[in-house]
Fold this protein.
Amino acid sequence: MNDNNETKVILPFEYEEDEHYYVEKLGEIPAKPVYSFLKRCIDVVGSVFGLIICFIPMLVIAAAIKLTSPGKVFYSQERLGLNGEKFMLIKFRTMRTDAEKSGAQWSKGKADDRITPIGAFLRKTRIDELPQLWLCLTGKLSLVGPRPERGVFYDEFEKHIHGFSERLKVKPGLTGLAQVCGGYDLRPEEKVVYDVEYIKKRSIFLDIKILFMTVGVILNHDGAR
């Protein structure tokens, strides 16, 4: 992607000039050391298990991407993590290599013509997310948390969704409450409501519940984009 275009944001929807949303201010959130320790244990065990089980399928997917469209197998993009820390998110490439030649573009979902034929299948089944298991192992991501977003979109959304960055108060996740309850087609002002609810109620029980719900979403292909 062309970093020079990062300041130009293309959204499939528009906010009116006087359209504003206000996110609940969370203040300093509780540390929850026992929960944090157990959550990290689940992240490590879960990501190692997932990488082992998915190793051969990931090789097949990589070959399929390489054979069906020009460009790299993996797609990396800068995202914001805990407390706004920048990190590189890695996914299987599902779009053309020139997908953002006009600027940073929010996905149009199924109607997005930048998605490759095999990319549509990978998104529908969420398989494109598998390389992020490595980020869960290294600690940049958790298995469960608000989905990481790009800094340029945080800047854009804060103009109308005041407090959107509250979701940066916990580590982002491979899956989250917004994904299993509303899917990827949620607008940002809807998504952040689920993210704040997760942050307030986060617990091992809730994380495990979200993981099981994620399996259901994958099997039903619900909310994929």
Remarks:
- Confidence is low (pLDDT under 50) at residues 1-5.
